[in-house]
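note to self: dont lose this again. the chain is below, predicted strucutre after it. 95 aa total, dont forget to put it in the shared folder this time
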Amino acid sequence: MIQSLYQLTNKGSLRALSFVLALVLTASIFTHKEIFALNLGGISPIYTLIIFWSVVTLWIHGFGLDIYRTIWKLLFMPMIAYVVAIVALGLIYFF
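---
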């Protein structure tokens, strides 16, 4: 099941989306570091770790690295990272 879910996002257009989202989220973290540190990091450090995990996952997927082991595909699932990245961008820019 994990293999089929991972294969849904293993397309060129979704890899490009991962690359763009990773680039935008990384730039947002660097340019809005006060908002990121105070609003997101002040609540709980777990939120910050989840956002960093999302950035790492999107960079890995966006560069096109192939993951062979099932456990690593589960850990770096791009679908979950998309949701976290979009929520994080919403929190940085709209709250």
